[in-house]
Predict the 3D structure of the following.
Amino acid sequence: MTAYAIAHIRPETMHEDVLRYIEEIQATLDPFGGRFLVHGREVEVMEGAWPGTVVMIAFPELEGARAWYASPAYQALIPLRADHMAGDIILVDGVPADYDASKTAAALREAAAL
């Protein structure tokens, strides 16, 4: 099942290290089948607050996403970004193509006895 690395990045100023990070990140993704779905795009906030940009990277499976993040190649790049930009990063499993939210709601309703 497809998994995602999602980052909420709050850049303040551009730095040479950040540009190097952007130049080199793809090579760290390739061995794990990672590909950008969204990269540094401004968001249209519909509810709440979301200062900054979003990055979404798809992986064939969650284990691959974990392996990418833990890889020596990516770990070496992290300071180039993290030393100059605040951000939050998560890994999350996707849902299958036939996912039906109403079935999830029914299971939650049953578990909560509602």
Notes: The beta strands are 3-11, 35-42, 53-59, 85-93.
